[in-house]
Structures are given as structure tokens and as C-alpha cells.
Amino acid sequence: MESHIGRRKFLAALGGAAAAWPLVARAQQPDRIRRIAVLAPLAEDDPEMTARLAGFRRGLEKRGWSEGRNVRMDTRFAPDSNADQAQVQARELIALQPDVILAQATPLVTALQRESRLIPIVFASVADPIGSGFVASLPRPGGNITGVMLYEASVSGKWLAMLKEIAPRLERAAFVINPKTAPYYNYYLRAAESLSPSLGTKLVPSLVENSADLERTIAAFARTPNGGLLLPPDASTQVHRDLIITLAARYSLPAVYWERLFVAAGGLMSYGTDYVDIYRQAASYVDRILRGDKPADLPVQAATKFETIVNLKTAKALGLTVPSGLLVAADEVFE
Asked: Average pLDDT of the chain?
């Protein structure tokens, strides 16, 4: 009996050791490298783009993914959101057959969608994902695309109200946007047009495609007094931000932007989302997809962090007094 029990213990121990061997072997093997592609809307050396990608990497690392260990990132930059350039880069990234692609800006997501309806795509801030044909609905995207949307259209009212608050004599607001890089522009334009009468302002659609258009359009608009500029989300005007800020100063036009980087570069004020935070949010989608979830089943999220930024130095140069209510609401003030 004792010998029989001893044999059973020996076999159990042997079986346990054998079962453990594959686990040990797996633990000793390097992690499988997953491939993440990124299509970015700003230049590689743009500090804002560097910060956004750093936020994305931090979001991935928080969830156990790090470059060189278990993920590889292939990044392409399309700073002008030129349709041809974006399409070439989208095609290059799709050819790499990545596990998932991260992209920001509607034209870049559109370019990727043309190349593949199978590879998962995560967007970091698009304006109108349903109207752009990226998702069937926000709770059930239904295809290979999901991510973080930018704003509700009603944010246009906030931008107009800020302009009126800082420049009470405002009568006209130029809605400056490039329809080629912001094909969703009617999403914001219609909302702004419906709200402008209540603020005693007339909205002036100002469609531009390049720097020459910007100079000509803003100069013409400035010939009539009591005007201001409203800059909704658009990768093209983002690229030309220094020119726009210069023109606003030259013609003494108060301007409200959708993003902090304009104010940091000398623009008057902005109300918008924190893009670094959006990239961190997008990392959660990439993580879930790498772990087996399908984009079709991952609801589109709204951006969660908004900020009001004011540049006092620019306000002074324009001869404007920033109302106390706007200062109190500001998350950051440049002096």
C-alpha cells in the first residue's frame, strides 16, 4: 500500500512538473510584438504633436504596452492634411498590416477607411463620426472604426458667446474654415448660424483653402468694423495658426479658437478639449482591440476634458478688457 501511495505521489508530482514546464517556457519567451500604426495631422517636429504622441504612449504604458517590448509603432505625418499625401501615407500604413491604427482628423480617417474596412481604426477627435460615415451610431459603431469624438455642434454657441463677451460691440463673426480639410464644417456652421441672432451677431462663412486665401479673406472681412474671427476645428487652419494670429493682430480682430495651441502662440482665447488627454483616452481603445475586442462593439466616447484659455497680453494689444467672468472661468491665463 505504501509503495502504491508513493508511486501515485511521484506521478502526481511528475504530472505537476510537466504541466508547469510550458508555463515556465512561456514566461521565458519574449512577449509577442504587436504593431500599432499612427497617422498624425501635424508635422513630426511640431511640439504639440510630440506632446500628443507622448500622451498616447503613456496611456499604452499604463495598460502594459511599451515600445520595444510588446508593441512597435509606425508613424506617418500629414501636416497639411493634403488629400493626395494623406492617401499615400494611409496606403503605406495599411500595407504594413498593423493590428490597429490610430488617426486624428476627419480627412486622415477617411483616407484610411478608403484603404481598409477590416483593419481596426481608432480616431482621436473627429467632429461628426456619423455624418462622416465612420460609424453607424455612437453606441454601436458597427464597422472597423471607433474612437473619441471632438465636440457637439452646440459648442459653436460657446465660441460666439466668448467673442461677444470680450468684444460687446461685435456685430459680425467670420467663420474661418477650409472645406477640403474640414468636410464636416456644416455641422458647426448650421449650429452657429442658428445661435448668432440671439447674440446680435451676423455669421459670415469664410471658406479658405490656403495661406493666400486666408490673407485675402481676413483682409476683406476687416474692412467693415466690429468684426471678430471664429476658428472651428480644422487641421488646415491649425497648420497656418501663426499666419492667422498675425492677421488677427494686424487688423485688430478679436478671435476665438478651438484649441489651446493658438493661444499659446499668441492668439486671444480658446475653448476646447485637451488633445493630450484625448490621445490618452484613445490608448484605452487600442488596448482593448489588442486584447481582442472589436471596434464594432466599442461605443464612441466624447472628449471629457475641456479648457478655457485666455491671453491677457494679446487682449491688451487689441485694446480689450477681459471680463472678470471670463477670467474666473479660465483654466489657464497667459500674461
From this structure: 89
Please tell me what DSSP assigns to residue 198: G
- Distance of alpha carbon 129 from alpha carbon 232, whole angstroms: 16
User: Cα(138)–Cα(128) distance, rounded to whole angstroms?
Assistant: 10
> Counting Cβ atoms within 10 Å, is residue 257 exposed (0-12), middle (13-18) or buried (19+)?
buried
Reported as a single tens digit per residue, the pLDDT across 206-227 is 999 999 999 999 999 999 999 9
Range of the domain at 124: 34-150+274-304
Residue range 303-323: mean pLDDT, rounded: 95
- Pair (195, 255) in one structural domain: yes
Q: Cα(244)–Cα(237) distance, rounded to whole angstroms?
A: 8
| CATH number, position 323 | 3.40.50.2300
How does pLDDT run across 20-35, given as a tens digit for each residue?
Answer: 334 333 333 446 899 9
Domain shared by 235 and 311, yes or no: yes
Listed residue (225, 227, 230, 222) closest to 162, CA to CA: 230
